[in-house]
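Re: the 274-residue chain
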Amino acid sequence: MSTPVPAGTLRPARTRTLHVESGGPAEITLHDRDRTRSFLLLHGGGGPATMTGFADLLAERTRSRVLLPTHPGFGGTPKADTLNHVTALAGAYVALLDQLDLQDVTLIGNSFGGWLAAEIALLRSPRVSGAVIINGVGIEVDGQPPTDVRGLTPAQLRAHSFHDPNKAPVPPNAGGNGPSPDVRAMVGYTGPTMSDPTLAGRLGDLRLPVHVLWGESDRIVTPAYGRAYAAAIPMATFTLLPRTGHLPQVETPEELLGALLDLGHRPFAAWKHS
C-alpha cells in the first residue's frame, strides 16, 4: 500500500440542490467537499451513506475537491420522469459538470455507480479525465449474472456484500423484509436485471484511463465478472482487493484508497500525462 498523503485542513462540507437540464429537468442534491482537484463519487443501491466516509477520507488524504451527489430518487429526493435509465442520469451528471465548470474530473463509482461512471465517460465530456469502477454492474457476462438483490433479506444482503458481515452497518430498515427504497430507486434506472446487453460492446469505445477494482469476496458480482468488465475497456487496469466484498469503500476504505494511489496501478497524477 502507498504511503498516505498528509491530510490538510478541510473546508466544511456543503449541501446544496442544483437544477440541471438534460432531456428534461433534473434536481440533484450534492454534498461538496471543496478542493482544487475534483472527484465525482457515484454511490450504488445502498445510497450516498455508503460513500460518505470514503468521501471524507479521499478529501483529507488527497486535498482534493470531492463531490458526492445523491442520485435523484434516492433518499426520498425527487426524480424527473425523464430520468428513466442510466444513460439519462449520466447526461444529467455531464450537465452538472458543465454547470459547475469543472475540469480534470475523476469519476469513482461503486456498484450501480460504477455503471453510471462508465456511461458518463462514454459521453466523452472533456471535463472528465479518468474513471474508477468499483464492483460495478451493468454488463452481461455468460454464467455470471448479478445477484438479484430485490429478494434478499437484510441479513442475506450483508452476507452477499461483505467479506466480514459483522463490519456491515445496520441499515435503517434492518428489521424489515424486501428491498429498501434506495434499491427500488436503483432498479428504476437499471431494470430488474441490473444490466444492459449493449454496455460491454459500447465500453470498447472508451478512450480514458479506467481502473477497475474488485473485492475478492463479492457475491453480488463476482471477480470473474469484474475481470470481464476490465477486459471490455481498452485502457483498463484491473485490481483485486483481498478481504473485502461488494463495498470496499465501507469495509476496507484504507486499502481501497491505497490501491487508488499505488504507483504500481496507474496513479491519478500520471493519467493526464499518459
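The radius of gyration is 17 Å.
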